[in-house]
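To: structure subgroup
Subject: Chain for Friday's discussion

All,

I'm putting the inputs and outputs inline so they're searchable in the archive.
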Amino acid sequence: MSAIVSLRGVSKLFPVQGSKRSHRAEPVRAVDSVTLDIEEGTVVGIVGYSGAGKSTLVRLLNGLERPTEGQVFVKGQEISSLPESRLRTVRSGIGMIFQQFNLLKSRTVYGNVAYPLKVAGWPKDKIKPRVDELLEFVGIADKAGSYPRRLSGGQQQRVGIARALANAPDILLADEATSALDPETTRDVLRLLRRINKELGTTVVVITHEMHVVREICDTVVMMESGRVVESGPTYSVFADPQSSSTQRFVATAVHGTPEPDTVSRLSAAHPGLLVSLGISEAAPTPLVAATFERHGVGSSVVFGGVTEIQNKILGTLTYELTGSGASIDAALAELGEVTAVERQLPTAAPAESLAPHLASVGKEA
């Protein structure tokens, strides 16, 4: 698989605005020394908090911004120094969808999708079949004569997607495309983006601050902070073992984790056994965990947590109440500690002398 977009040492600096002395101030590095490859035919999630540099990076990818330093390559062509006339040709192969849809209010759904085809000089007799095809593909063929104000948010975004696909782009950039939508509509739009990737072979770059979006459809994830790429890799690998503190915080919003201290206290009041949180993954699926406890004669029941699916693989954390002899429990946890993270949950209100039996390290305890 080859890279369809490559960045090499790319930085984008903006002068400080709104100050009489701004010409003396250090410029803002919106993107800072980014080197990145986006593989053809994949869905890539670029994630970060507000101000991380995500939207600036998108504008660098489609040539709307030029890098202050470094080079941007699209389909093997270095675009950083191309004149505007040649950049327009590059942009014709890059579709764009937006958070606020950016539809032309004075045009119907049909007119919005037909507009980029007219600008591109398509013959009139070719435009209608193409628009009809696109509206059918995104599931709003019955809305061709409607105006944007008559559509729901999800329908408007489908119009935006159809418009972005009009010229059959090789790359589709989705900048916070689901942020203004409700959860159910978000799922529908994400399924549509995945279908575009699978059926049309379009490379999709999703810019988002929502980790569940990445979990749902992305093959790889790129984590940005303060203009830099702080972590990147296959989505499952990043979710299963996040390295940077920013990535860890983001992953925690999309994957079930260990219970908070107040939750541990409530669970301890209701469950007299030992509470242990275990990482559930391909290496440590629930049947393996259950079989290990059973083999050591340890009683176990799940009292907290959950498991999700990422790239068709399971991932999550489950908290178990364990009963049995201390030696049997220690042996089971030591065995499980060879393949996953093990964390004994201690209620914060427990007296200090009661903690001693639980403080020994077990395997890979967190």
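Points worth raising on Friday:
Confidence is low (pLDDT under 50) at residues 350-366.
The chain is about 35% helix and 25% strand.

D.
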